[in-house]
Design a protein that fits this description.
This protein has 19 helices and 16 strands.
Length: 454
């Protein structure tokens, strides 16, 4: 009788041992730079109370939250009338009190407020954990994916933004990915909305223009009109959406356009300071002022940034910005923060397409000892114990099967060296070692082999 083949939910993935070695290379690279820049690691639960998550991401974000049904009889507080009414907004609080985290920033804000008496400000944290979004799966967009976040809270200094760009540059230099860092400022966007006569439509304007790379200028204009932005205002927005030139030229144009907006002028001044600081320190990545960059999340209040891979068609692979008000909703007003999030899964896809992994990334062990029988295997195991004690990943093949099969396993697993301990080697206390890349064979004592492979 045929059985259904098991499957996993759409938008999620299994990872093989080889894939995990590549992903760990990415995580380790990012983690190393986080530590070099002075960030401290924390973790938060996979699920949070919905009261913590709801209302922090805008209406679109709230719709993408995965809700968790209450345990036990989750319908016990729902009347038949409410059930038949099918009002999701009213039903949800009665059947689901928790949800899977949508990102790491809001849980971090909750963490800061909850542990505020134990933290020294400014506090620099990093966090590498999975998040979940009920989004439509597509290339580069998953329902379960990892974020690698770095945030600084308790400081309003724009030096933090400058340093975060340095951190981004360092990570992607290590990974070998050519990138463009796109920068904007939420205050500039607020000034633009004010200048075109729709200060009350800031969210509608930013949500629409944030899609310009995905749906194009014409469709963005259509969406603006559908959202109640006047034709005259849409026309005034065109120079912003199509602006070209150097970073300095773009900021000069915005300063002129926003001269009547106090908020807009402040945003331009902040952007100038950040750009000048980045240029003064030097960088290998491309840094570009992009005034169409909006980032849809409502909690950004100052600098916003996104990172694009230059050599692959992919959405943003890192993003972030300044949020002055986020902890206020949890009872701690006035605490400013700024942070970035590396999209590990998209970075992984970029690395795969460009084949940027070092050769040794896929090595599971440095050396495999061939199993010639019980007596020889026991001696090989003694050697392996010494190698492992000295930090050399090594292994004895568990079964005494044909040597051809054992060698084929070593080749498939990309093991760089294979060791032979037969009767002759046991007699003279040496180990015959074959270099799998060159085919050369040479005898070593265990001490010499440790020195070679350490």
């Amino acid at each position: 009788m045929a059985t259904n083949k098991p499957s996993i939910p759409k938008g999620t993935r299994d990872f093989t041992a080889v894939e995990m070695s590549r992903r760990n290379y990415i995580f380790d690279t990012i983690k190393r730079q986080f530590r070099l820049f002075g960030y401290k690691q924390i973790e938060t639960p996979a699920m949070e109370n919905l009261s913590t998550l709801m209302g922090k991401y805008g209406d679109e974000g709230d719709k993408l939250l995965f809700k968790i049904l209450n345990s036990g009889d989750w319908l016990k507080d729902v009347s038949d009338e409410e059930l038949l009414g099918r009002n999701v907004v009213k039903l949800t609080p009665k059947v689901a009190e928790k949800g899977l985290r949508y990102d790491l920033t809001v849980p971090f804000a909750r963490f800061v407020v909850q542990h505020r008496n134990d933290l020294q400000m400014p506090f620099k944290r990093y966090q590498i954990q999975p998040v979940w979004r009920a989004d439509r799966p597509q290339k580069g967009r998953y329902r379960e994916f990892y974020q690698c976040d770095a945030d600084v809270v308790g400081s309003e200094s724009l030096n933090n933004e400058i340093e975060l760009v340095q951190l981004i540059d360092a990570v992607f230099c290590d990974l070998g990915i050519n990138i463009t860092v796109k920068l904007n400022n939420r205050k500039i966007l607020a000034g633009i909305a004010e200048t075109v006569g729709h200060a009350d439509k800031l969210v509608d304007i930013t949500v629409a223009i944030d899609k310009i790379d995905k749906i194009g200028l014409d469709n963005v204009n259509t969406e603006l009109l559908e959202n109640g932005i006047s034709a005259e205002a849409v026309e005034k927005l065109q120079p912003v959406l199509t602006m070209t030139g150097s970073n300095a030229e773009k900021l000069d144009l915005m300063a002129n356009m926003l001269r009547e907006s106090e908020t807009g002028i402040k945003g331009v001044a902040e952007m100038r300071e950040v750009i000048e600081g980045i240029e003064d320190l030097g960088h290998k990545c491309t840094v570009e002022v992009d005034l169409s960059l909006a980032r849809g999340l409502n909690y950004y209040t100052g600098t916003i940034l996104e990172v694009k891979a230059n050599d692959v068609q992919m959405g943003s692979i890192t993003g972030g910005g300044r949020y002055d008000n986020l902890t206020g909703v949890f009872g701690m007003p006035g605490l400013s923060g700024v942070g970035i999030s590396f999209g590990a899964d998209r970075i992984y896809d970029v690395m795969n397409q460009l084949n940027l992994y070092p050769k040794e990334t896929e090595e599971s062990i440095k050396i495999l000892f061939i199993n010639f029988g019980d007596k020889e295997a026991r001696q090989a195991m003694k050697y392996v114990k010494e190698l492992r004690a000295n930090g050399v990943p090594s292994q004895v093949y568990p079964d005494s099967v044909k040597m051809k099969k054992q060698m084929s396993i070593a080749d498939a697993d990309k093991v760089p060296y294979v060791a032979f301990v037969g009767e002759q080697e046991m007699a003279d206390g040496n180990i015959m070692v074959k270099d799998m890349a060159t085919g050369e064979q040479q005898k070593y004592t265990v001490a010499e082999l440790i020195e070679k492979l350490k």
